Amino acid sequence: MQAFVKIKSGSYRNQEVRDEVFPLIKQFQLGSKGGYITVDGTGRFGKDKIRVTVASPTDYELVEAPEAPVVASQEDDEAVIARIAERFDILDDMTKAVLNGDIRAMIVAGPPGIGKSYGIESQLEKANLFDQISGRRVKSEMIKGTATALGMYKALYKYSDDNSVIVFDDCDSILLDDVCLNLLKGALDSSKKRRISWLADSHSLRNEGIPDQFDFKGGVIFITNLKFDQMKSQKTRDHLDAIQSRCHYLDLTLDTMRDKILRIKQIARTGMLFEDYDFDQIQQDEIIDFMTENQNKLREVSLRMAIKIAQLRKSFPFKWSALASTTCMKSI
Known about the structure:
Layout: E1 4-7, E2 10-12, E3 15-17, E4 20-31, E5 34-41, H1 42-45, E6 47-53, E7 60-63, H2 77-99, E8 105-109, H3 116-133, E9 140-144, H4 149-158, E10 165-169, H5 178-187, E11 195-197, H6 203-207, E12 213-215, E13 219-224, H7 234-245, E14 248-251, H8 257-270, H9 281-293, H10 303-315, H11 320-327
Parallel strand pairs: 8-13, 8-14, 9-10, 10-13
Antiparallel strand pairs: 1-4, 1-7, 2-3, 4-5, 5-6, 11-12
Helix pairs in contact: 2-3, 2-8, 4-5, 5-7, 8-9, 9-10, 10-11
């Protein structure tokens, strides 16, 4: 009996495969360039045996045989760019709502290097500038990198007032620490009074005059590269479900290589990506085309990589592509 598989997220020869059903030939395998499954691609790609790249077995599922293979309609590039831009517009609006105290907490999930932090940081800088001009204490801060449970407790206390906001950026270690998670759950609780306690003895808290419990009235934004529903540990997933239930959860849905390339194109169109390099449109297109053609060879596909290549394009106008091939691509 023929088995069928629904691919939730994958790609074949740089073409996105999302929510499409194919006859299954062979399940998940690891090759020299990553994971893949083998399917009959006759209906979509005109080939009866293709390897569709998937990150892990969770990116597809076995399904009952359809009357005919179902092929989802594909978004064209402009539709994808519009979808991405809309998500980032929502991110800006939600950040403003947290800063205004209308929303208590938000989680922003997406792959690294696609500009998750940029919009949020810009909104924080605007809010802090108004406070500085008015001579008021700055009410928001972005914390990047690793944070201990005690450090997190101190940060929450510092920004515990109304309309204060603390942003944890790329602090994924917090999500793997039980004490940090419990503190975070307390800060995000939906009850009217959010009381946070530190019951362990701490000289550090006493020396800094920080009480062992306080009411948190501020807002929290958590920026992460992790997909909450793809964590392997059931214990961690249970904790994250409790966090997610207390927050607005915004997944930027940049899950494929194509999405990332189109995000770079979208930012380039705004003029912000290469604004420091005085490039004309042809030069900008050369960089984007180089990344598109070499997307599977680059060390990463991200806005940061676009800037690295732009730096080479500016410094070495006649041999930048050769240098980028050497310094920005994986060794084969």
